[in-house]
Amino acid sequence: xxxxxxxxxxxxxxxxxxxxxxxxxxxxxxxxxxxxxxxxxxxxxxxxxxxxxxxxxxxxxxxxxxxxxxxxxxxxxxxxxxxxxxxxxxxxxxxxxxxxxxxxxxxxxxxxxxxxxxxxxxxxxxxxxxxxxxxxxxxxxxxxxxxxxxxxxxxxxxxxxxxxxxxxxxxxxxxxxxxxxxxxxxxxxxxxxxxxxxxxxxxxxxxxxxxxxxxxxxxxxxxxxxxxxxxxxxxxxxxxxxxxxxxxxxxxxxxxxxxxxxxxxxxxxxxxxxxxxxxxxxxxxxxxxxxxxxxxxxxxxxxxxxxxxxxxxxxxxxxxxxxxxxxxxxxxxxxxxxxxxxxxxxxxxxxx
Length: 352
Ligand code: NAD
Ligand code: TYD
Fold this sequence. Notes:
The structure is a single chain. This protein is α/β, with parallel strands linked by helices. It has two domains: 6-188 and 223-248, Rossmann fold; 197-220 and 254-293 and 314-344, UDP-galactose 4-epimerase, domain 1 (Alpha-Beta Complex), CATH 3.90.25. Helices cover 44% and strands 16% of the residues. It is built from eleven helices and twelve strands. Helix 4 (96-118) runs parallel beside helix 5. The protein is globular and about 65 Å long.
Protein backbone atom coordinates (compact mmCIF):
# COMPACT_ATOMS: atom_id res chain seq x y z
CA UNK A 1 0.00 0.00 0.00
CA UNK A 2 1.19 3.54 -0.69
CA UNK A 3 2.42 5.92 2.01
CA UNK A 4 1.31 9.55 2.28
CA UNK A 5 -1.91 10.96 0.92
CA UNK A 6 -3.61 9.73 -2.22
CA UNK A 7 -5.67 11.83 -4.59
CA UNK A 8 -8.18 9.56 -6.33
CA UNK A 9 -9.88 11.16 -9.32
CA UNK A 10 -13.17 9.63 -10.45
CA UNK A 11 -13.44 8.02 -7.01
CA UNK A 12 -17.26 8.17 -6.94
CA UNK A 13 -17.58 5.92 -10.00
CA UNK A 14 -17.58 2.14 -10.26
CA UNK A 15 -13.89 1.14 -10.06
CA UNK A 16 -12.75 4.34 -8.33
CA UNK A 17 -15.18 3.86 -5.43
CA UNK A 18 -13.94 0.30 -4.89
CA UNK A 19 -10.40 1.65 -4.80
CA UNK A 20 -11.29 4.46 -2.39
CA UNK A 21 -13.21 2.20 0.02
CA UNK A 22 -10.33 -0.26 0.07
CA UNK A 23 -7.58 2.37 0.53
CA UNK A 24 -9.50 4.21 3.27
CA UNK A 25 -10.18 0.95 5.09
CA UNK A 26 -6.44 0.22 5.04
CA UNK A 27 -5.87 3.55 6.80
CA UNK A 28 -4.59 5.66 3.87
CA UNK A 29 -5.31 9.39 3.73
CA UNK A 30 -7.55 9.72 0.67
CA UNK A 31 -9.10 12.67 -1.13
CA UNK A 32 -11.63 11.90 -3.85
CA UNK A 33 -12.00 14.40 -6.69
CA UNK A 34 -15.06 13.67 -8.81
CA UNK A 35 -17.16 15.76 -11.19
CA UNK A 36 -20.24 13.71 -10.24
CA UNK A 37 -21.41 13.16 -13.78
CA UNK A 38 -24.38 10.81 -14.31
CA UNK A 39 -21.94 7.93 -13.54
CA UNK A 40 -20.62 9.39 -10.29
CA UNK A 41 -22.61 8.50 -7.20
CA UNK A 42 -21.74 9.78 -3.74
CA UNK A 43 -23.69 6.93 -2.16
CA UNK A 44 -20.96 4.60 -3.50
CA UNK A 45 -18.76 6.18 -0.83
CA UNK A 46 -21.30 6.03 2.03
CA UNK A 47 -19.18 3.60 4.05
CA UNK A 48 -16.23 6.04 4.07
CA UNK A 49 -18.28 9.23 4.34
CA UNK A 50 -17.73 10.06 7.97
CA UNK A 51 -14.19 8.88 8.54
CA UNK A 52 -11.34 11.26 9.30
CA UNK A 53 -8.99 9.90 6.61
CA UNK A 54 -11.30 10.60 3.64
CA UNK A 55 -12.98 13.59 2.06
CA UNK A 56 -14.67 14.23 -1.26
CA UNK A 57 -14.31 17.29 -3.46
CA UNK A 58 -16.72 17.88 -6.31
CA UNK A 59 -15.00 19.15 -9.45
CA UNK A 60 -13.49 18.28 -12.78
CA UNK A 61 -9.94 17.14 -13.54
CA UNK A 62 -10.17 19.54 -16.51
CA UNK A 63 -10.47 22.54 -14.12
CA UNK A 64 -6.88 23.85 -14.07
CA UNK A 65 -7.34 26.22 -11.16
CA UNK A 66 -9.04 23.65 -8.96
CA UNK A 67 -6.50 20.92 -9.70
CA UNK A 68 -3.53 23.24 -9.10
CA UNK A 69 -5.06 24.46 -5.84
CA UNK A 70 -5.76 20.93 -4.69
CA UNK A 71 -2.22 19.71 -5.32
CA UNK A 72 -0.75 22.76 -3.60
CA UNK A 73 -2.95 22.16 -0.57
CA UNK A 74 -2.86 18.38 -0.40
CA UNK A 75 0.71 17.63 -1.55
CA UNK A 76 -0.22 14.05 -2.44
CA UNK A 77 2.41 11.35 -2.85
CA UNK A 78 0.12 9.43 -5.20
CA UNK A 79 -2.51 10.33 -7.78
CA UNK A 80 -4.68 7.53 -9.11
CA UNK A 81 -6.62 8.73 -12.13
CA UNK A 82 -9.88 6.88 -12.77
CA UNK A 83 -11.79 9.99 -13.90
CA UNK A 84 -13.17 9.49 -17.39
CA UNK A 85 -16.25 9.21 -19.51
CA UNK A 86 -16.31 5.43 -19.80
CA UNK A 87 -19.14 4.17 -21.99
CA UNK A 88 -18.52 3.35 -25.67
CA UNK A 89 -22.17 3.81 -26.74
CA UNK A 90 -22.27 7.30 -25.22
CA UNK A 91 -19.02 8.18 -26.98
CA UNK A 92 -20.71 7.29 -30.28
CA UNK A 93 -23.78 9.39 -29.42
CA UNK A 94 -21.77 12.41 -28.23
CA UNK A 95 -17.95 12.40 -28.17
CA UNK A 96 -17.39 15.95 -26.81
CA UNK A 97 -17.34 15.04 -23.13
CA UNK A 98 -14.84 12.26 -23.88
CA UNK A 99 -12.40 14.75 -25.37
CA UNK A 100 -12.84 17.15 -22.42
CA UNK A 101 -12.50 14.65 -19.58
CA UNK A 102 -10.37 11.89 -21.04
CA UNK A 103 -7.85 13.99 -22.98
CA UNK A 104 -7.95 17.60 -21.73
CA UNK A 105 -8.51 16.41 -18.14
CA UNK A 106 -5.42 14.18 -18.28
CA UNK A 107 -3.39 17.01 -19.81
CA UNK A 108 -4.43 19.29 -16.93
CA UNK A 109 -3.49 16.63 -14.35
CA UNK A 110 -0.09 16.05 -15.96
CA UNK A 111 0.72 19.75 -16.08
CA UNK A 112 -0.31 20.09 -12.43
CA UNK A 113 1.95 17.14 -11.53
CA UNK A 114 4.86 18.81 -13.33
CA UNK A 115 4.35 21.97 -11.28
CA UNK A 116 3.78 19.99 -8.07
CA UNK A 117 7.05 18.07 -8.51
CA UNK A 118 9.06 21.31 -8.56
CA UNK A 119 8.30 21.89 -4.89
CA UNK A 120 7.36 18.39 -3.74
CA UNK A 121 9.52 17.28 -0.79
CA UNK A 122 9.07 13.61 -1.61
CA UNK A 123 9.38 13.87 -5.40
CA UNK A 124 11.22 10.52 -5.54
CA UNK A 125 8.20 8.78 -3.98
CA UNK A 126 5.54 10.55 -6.04
CA UNK A 127 3.58 8.42 -8.54
CA UNK A 128 0.89 9.28 -11.08
CA UNK A 129 -1.03 6.08 -11.83
CA UNK A 130 -3.16 6.40 -14.94
CA UNK A 131 -5.94 3.84 -15.39
CA UNK A 132 -6.48 2.85 -19.00
CA UNK A 133 -8.18 0.14 -20.98
CA UNK A 134 -7.60 -2.81 -23.33
CA UNK A 135 -9.74 -0.97 -25.90
CA UNK A 136 -6.74 1.15 -26.98
CA UNK A 137 -5.31 -1.89 -28.81
CA UNK A 138 -8.49 -2.32 -30.87
CA UNK A 139 -9.97 -5.63 -31.96
CA UNK A 140 -7.49 -8.52 -31.70
CA UNK A 141 -8.14 -11.27 -34.22
CA UNK A 142 -5.76 -13.83 -32.74
CA UNK A 143 -3.58 -14.10 -29.66
CA UNK A 144 -3.39 -11.27 -27.13
CA UNK A 145 -2.00 -7.72 -27.15
CA UNK A 146 1.23 -7.09 -25.25
CA UNK A 147 2.26 -3.73 -23.83
CA UNK A 148 4.43 -3.16 -26.93
CA UNK A 149 1.65 -3.63 -29.47
CA UNK A 150 0.48 -0.79 -31.69
CA UNK A 151 -2.54 1.21 -30.55
CA UNK A 152 -5.50 0.83 -32.91
CA UNK A 153 -8.60 2.32 -31.23
CA UNK A 154 -12.00 2.00 -32.93
CA UNK A 155 -14.47 4.07 -30.89
CA UNK A 156 -14.30 7.70 -29.78
CA UNK A 157 -13.97 6.37 -26.20
CA UNK A 158 -11.02 4.12 -27.09
CA UNK A 159 -9.38 6.90 -29.13
CA UNK A 160 -9.70 9.34 -26.23
CA UNK A 161 -8.11 6.83 -23.83
CA UNK A 162 -5.34 6.10 -26.35
CA UNK A 163 -4.64 9.83 -26.69
CA UNK A 164 -4.43 10.15 -22.91
CA UNK A 165 -1.98 7.22 -22.66
CA UNK A 166 0.26 8.94 -25.23
CA UNK A 167 0.17 12.18 -23.22
CA UNK A 168 1.05 10.32 -20.02
CA UNK A 169 4.04 8.61 -21.70
CA UNK A 170 5.20 11.89 -23.23
CA UNK A 171 5.10 13.67 -19.85
CA UNK A 172 7.20 10.84 -18.43
CA UNK A 173 9.80 10.89 -21.26
CA UNK A 174 9.99 14.65 -21.68
CA UNK A 175 9.47 16.05 -18.19
CA UNK A 176 10.32 13.04 -16.03
CA UNK A 177 6.88 12.87 -14.38
CA UNK A 178 6.94 9.50 -12.55
CA UNK A 179 3.98 7.78 -14.18
CA UNK A 180 2.62 4.26 -14.31
CA UNK A 181 -0.03 3.19 -16.84
CA UNK A 182 -2.31 0.18 -16.49
CA UNK A 183 -4.46 -1.17 -19.31
CA UNK A 184 -7.20 -3.39 -17.98
CA UNK A 185 -9.86 -5.62 -19.51
CA UNK A 186 -13.63 -5.38 -18.86
CA UNK A 187 -14.44 -5.07 -15.17
CA UNK A 188 -17.58 -6.29 -13.42
CA UNK A 189 -18.83 -6.31 -9.82
CA UNK A 190 -21.05 -4.32 -7.42
CA UNK A 191 -21.72 -0.60 -8.00
CA UNK A 192 -21.26 -0.74 -11.80
CA UNK A 193 -23.56 1.74 -13.50
CA UNK A 194 -26.40 -0.15 -15.24
CA UNK A 195 -25.52 0.92 -18.76
CA UNK A 196 -22.67 -1.64 -19.07
CA UNK A 197 -23.45 -5.15 -20.25
CA UNK A 198 -23.53 -7.06 -16.94
CA UNK A 199 -25.47 -4.66 -14.67
CA UNK A 200 -27.73 -3.63 -17.58
CA UNK A 201 -28.65 -7.26 -18.18
CA UNK A 202 -29.29 -7.95 -14.48
CA UNK A 203 -31.40 -4.83 -13.94
CA UNK A 204 -33.44 -5.26 -17.13
CA UNK A 205 -34.01 -8.97 -16.40
CA UNK A 206 -35.32 -8.14 -12.92
CA UNK A 207 -37.78 -5.68 -14.51
CA UNK A 208 -38.89 -8.31 -17.04
CA UNK A 209 -37.50 -6.16 -19.89
CA UNK A 210 -35.86 -7.37 -23.12
CA UNK A 211 -32.11 -8.05 -22.86
CA UNK A 212 -30.40 -6.39 -25.83
CA UNK A 213 -27.63 -8.45 -27.47
CA UNK A 214 -25.75 -6.44 -30.09
CA UNK A 215 -25.30 -8.07 -33.53
CA UNK A 216 -24.67 -11.82 -33.39
CA UNK A 217 -23.53 -11.65 -29.74
CA UNK A 218 -20.32 -13.52 -30.48
CA UNK A 219 -17.99 -10.62 -29.64
CA UNK A 220 -15.56 -11.63 -26.91
CA UNK A 221 -14.36 -9.81 -23.82
CA UNK A 222 -12.01 -10.77 -20.98
CA UNK A 223 -13.83 -10.23 -17.67
CA UNK A 224 -12.02 -9.20 -14.47
CA UNK A 225 -13.63 -8.72 -11.06
CA UNK A 226 -13.25 -5.10 -9.87
CA UNK A 227 -11.62 -6.21 -6.58
CA UNK A 228 -8.94 -8.10 -8.51
CA UNK A 229 -8.37 -4.95 -10.58
CA UNK A 230 -7.92 -2.82 -7.45
CA UNK A 231 -5.48 -5.35 -5.96
CA UNK A 232 -3.52 -5.20 -9.21
CA UNK A 233 -3.36 -1.39 -9.00
CA UNK A 234 -1.91 -1.53 -5.48
CA UNK A 235 0.64 -4.10 -6.65
CA UNK A 236 1.64 -1.90 -9.60
CA UNK A 237 2.02 1.10 -7.27
CA UNK A 238 4.26 -0.95 -4.99
CA UNK A 239 6.30 -2.88 -7.54
CA UNK A 240 5.93 -1.11 -10.90
CA UNK A 241 8.74 0.76 -12.64
CA UNK A 242 7.99 4.36 -13.51
CA UNK A 243 7.40 5.06 -17.18
CA UNK A 244 6.12 1.52 -17.70
CA UNK A 245 2.79 0.16 -18.90
CA UNK A 246 1.18 -2.94 -17.37
CA UNK A 247 -1.65 -4.99 -18.89
CA UNK A 248 -4.16 -6.38 -16.39
CA UNK A 249 -6.24 -9.35 -17.56
CA UNK A 250 -8.08 -12.31 -16.09
CA UNK A 251 -7.82 -14.66 -19.06
CA UNK A 252 -11.54 -15.40 -18.50
CA UNK A 253 -12.80 -14.70 -22.00
CA UNK A 254 -16.49 -15.12 -22.85
CA UNK A 255 -18.77 -14.16 -25.74
CA UNK A 256 -21.45 -11.60 -24.89
CA UNK A 257 -24.10 -14.23 -25.54
CA UNK A 258 -22.42 -16.59 -23.06
CA UNK A 259 -22.25 -13.84 -20.41
CA UNK A 260 -25.95 -12.95 -20.76
CA UNK A 261 -26.94 -16.62 -20.72
CA UNK A 262 -24.87 -17.20 -17.57
CA UNK A 263 -26.56 -14.24 -15.84
CA UNK A 264 -29.96 -15.64 -16.87
CA UNK A 265 -29.10 -19.07 -15.47
CA UNK A 266 -27.95 -17.55 -12.14
CA UNK A 267 -31.16 -15.48 -11.91
CA UNK A 268 -33.26 -18.58 -12.69
CA UNK A 269 -31.77 -20.14 -9.54
CA UNK A 270 -31.70 -17.09 -7.25
CA UNK A 271 -34.85 -15.24 -8.29
CA UNK A 272 -37.08 -17.28 -10.66
CA UNK A 273 -39.61 -15.37 -12.77
CA UNK A 274 -43.19 -15.46 -11.52
CA UNK A 275 -44.49 -16.73 -14.92
CA UNK A 276 -42.10 -19.72 -14.72
CA UNK A 277 -40.30 -18.81 -17.98
CA UNK A 278 -36.49 -18.82 -17.97
CA UNK A 279 -34.84 -15.39 -18.16
CA UNK A 280 -33.04 -16.33 -21.40
CA UNK A 281 -36.35 -15.98 -23.28
CA UNK A 282 -35.93 -12.21 -22.75
CA UNK A 283 -32.74 -12.07 -24.87
CA UNK A 284 -33.27 -10.01 -28.03
CA UNK A 285 -30.81 -9.59 -30.90
CA UNK A 286 -30.63 -5.88 -31.73
CA UNK A 287 -28.71 -3.77 -34.25
CA UNK A 288 -24.96 -3.92 -33.79
CA UNK A 289 -22.90 -1.09 -32.29
CA UNK A 290 -21.14 0.91 -35.06
CA UNK A 291 -17.42 0.02 -35.22
CA UNK A 292 -18.01 -2.79 -32.71
CA UNK A 293 -14.71 -4.46 -31.77
CA UNK A 294 -15.01 -8.21 -32.22
CA UNK A 295 -12.52 -9.42 -29.66
CA UNK A 296 -10.36 -7.97 -26.89
CA UNK A 297 -7.55 -10.02 -25.40
CA UNK A 298 -4.56 -8.88 -23.36
CA UNK A 299 -1.33 -10.67 -22.59
CA UNK A 300 -1.02 -10.04 -18.85
CA UNK A 301 2.20 -11.99 -18.32
CA UNK A 302 4.38 -8.91 -17.69
CA UNK A 303 2.17 -7.90 -14.75
CA UNK A 304 2.02 -11.45 -13.41
CA UNK A 305 5.81 -11.97 -13.62
CA UNK A 306 7.22 -8.49 -12.85
CA UNK A 307 4.54 -7.28 -10.45
CA UNK A 308 3.61 -10.61 -8.88
CA UNK A 309 -0.15 -10.15 -9.21
CA UNK A 310 -2.67 -12.82 -10.20
CA UNK A 311 -6.46 -12.62 -10.14
CA UNK A 312 -8.19 -14.40 -7.25
CA UNK A 313 -11.85 -14.39 -8.29
CA UNK A 314 -13.04 -16.91 -10.89
CA UNK A 315 -15.65 -15.52 -13.30
CA UNK A 316 -18.58 -17.77 -12.38
CA UNK A 317 -18.10 -17.21 -8.62
CA UNK A 318 -17.62 -13.45 -9.10
CA UNK A 319 -20.65 -13.19 -11.38
CA UNK A 320 -22.84 -15.09 -8.90
CA UNK A 321 -21.76 -12.75 -6.06
CA UNK A 322 -22.40 -9.77 -8.32
CA UNK A 323 -25.94 -10.93 -9.14
CA UNK A 324 -26.52 -11.40 -5.38
CA UNK A 325 -25.35 -7.83 -4.74
CA UNK A 326 -27.75 -6.38 -7.35
CA UNK A 327 -30.60 -8.46 -5.92
CA UNK A 328 -29.89 -7.04 -2.47
CA UNK A 329 -29.42 -3.44 -3.63
CA UNK A 330 -32.63 -2.71 -5.50
CA UNK A 331 -32.67 0.92 -4.33
CA UNK A 332 -29.18 1.56 -5.74
CA UNK A 333 -30.22 0.10 -9.11
CA UNK A 334 -33.48 2.07 -9.12
CA UNK A 335 -31.80 5.45 -8.52
CA UNK A 336 -29.07 4.64 -11.06
CA UNK A 337 -31.62 3.58 -13.65
CA UNK A 338 -33.47 6.87 -13.21
CA UNK A 339 -30.20 8.72 -13.89
CA UNK A 340 -29.53 6.39 -16.83
CA UNK A 341 -32.90 7.01 -18.46
CA UNK A 342 -32.67 10.77 -17.84
CA UNK A 343 -29.14 11.14 -19.19
CA UNK A 344 -29.73 8.90 -22.23
CA UNK A 345 -32.82 10.94 -23.07
CA UNK A 346 -30.58 14.01 -22.88
CA UNK A 347 -28.16 12.53 -25.38
CA UNK A 348 -30.94 11.53 -27.76
CA UNK A 349 -32.46 15.03 -27.54
CA UNK A 350 -29.06 16.54 -28.41
CA UNK A 351 -28.91 14.34 -31.52
CA UNK A 352 -32.24 15.78 -32.53
P1 NAD B 1 -17.43 5.13 -14.33
O1 NAD B 1 -18.07 5.78 -15.51
O2 NAD B 1 -18.24 4.23 -13.46
O3 NAD B 1 -16.82 6.25 -13.35
C1 NAD B 1 -16.14 7.38 -13.85
C2 NAD B 1 -16.10 8.41 -12.72
O4 NAD B 1 -15.34 9.53 -13.20
C3 NAD B 1 -17.48 8.93 -12.33
O5 NAD B 1 -17.57 9.02 -10.93
C4 NAD B 1 -17.53 10.34 -12.94
O6 NAD B 1 -18.34 11.23 -12.22
C5 NAD B 1 -16.06 10.72 -12.89
N1 NAD B 1 -15.67 11.73 -13.89
C6 NAD B 1 -15.98 11.77 -15.22
N2 NAD B 1 -15.43 12.85 -15.79
C7 NAD B 1 -14.75 13.51 -14.81
C8 NAD B 1 -13.98 14.69 -14.76
N3 NAD B 1 -13.79 15.44 -15.86
N4 NAD B 1 -13.42 15.06 -13.59
C9 NAD B 1 -13.61 14.33 -12.47
N5 NAD B 1 -14.36 13.20 -12.44
C10 NAD B 1 -14.92 12.80 -13.60
O7 NAD B 1 -16.14 4.41 -14.90
P2 NAD B 1 -15.37 3.11 -14.40
O8 NAD B 1 -15.94 1.95 -15.07
O9 NAD B 1 -15.27 3.16 -12.92
O10 NAD B 1 -13.93 3.38 -15.06
C11 NAD B 1 -12.92 4.07 -14.33
C12 NAD B 1 -11.68 4.14 -15.19
O11 NAD B 1 -11.25 2.84 -15.53
C13 NAD B 1 -11.88 4.89 -16.52
O12 NAD B 1 -10.74 5.66 -16.76
C14 NAD B 1 -12.01 3.77 -17.54
O13 NAD B 1 -11.54 4.20 -18.80
C15 NAD B 1 -11.09 2.72 -16.94
N6 NAD B 1 -11.42 1.33 -17.29
C16 NAD B 1 -12.69 0.84 -17.06
C17 NAD B 1 -12.98 -0.49 -17.36
C18 NAD B 1 -14.35 -1.08 -17.11
O14 NAD B 1 -14.61 -2.20 -17.54
N7 NAD B 1 -15.25 -0.39 -16.43
C19 NAD B 1 -11.97 -1.32 -17.88
C20 NAD B 1 -10.68 -0.79 -18.09
C21 NAD B 1 -10.43 0.54 -17.77
P1 TYD C 1 -19.92 -2.74 -22.44
O1 TYD C 1 -20.32 -3.25 -21.10
O2 TYD C 1 -20.53 -1.48 -22.94
O3 TYD C 1 -18.33 -2.64 -22.40
P2 TYD C 1 -17.27 -2.39 -23.62
O4 TYD C 1 -17.99 -1.86 -24.80
O5 TYD C 1 -16.36 -1.39 -22.99
O6 TYD C 1 -16.62 -3.72 -23.86
O7 TYD C 1 -20.19 -3.87 -23.51
C1 TYD C 1 -19.60 -5.15 -23.39
C2 TYD C 1 -19.96 -5.92 -24.62
O8 TYD C 1 -21.37 -6.19 -24.61
C3 TYD C 1 -19.69 -5.17 -25.92
O9 TYD C 1 -19.22 -6.10 -26.90
C4 TYD C 1 -21.05 -4.62 -26.33
C5 TYD C 1 -22.02 -5.66 -25.78
N1 TYD C 1 -23.32 -5.15 -25.32
C6 TYD C 1 -24.50 -5.79 -25.73
O10 TYD C 1 -24.47 -6.78 -26.49
N2 TYD C 1 -25.69 -5.32 -25.28
C7 TYD C 1 -25.76 -4.22 -24.45
O11 TYD C 1 -26.90 -3.81 -24.08
C8 TYD C 1 -24.55 -3.58 -24.05
C9 TYD C 1 -24.59 -2.38 -23.14
C10 TYD C 1 -23.35 -4.09 -24.50
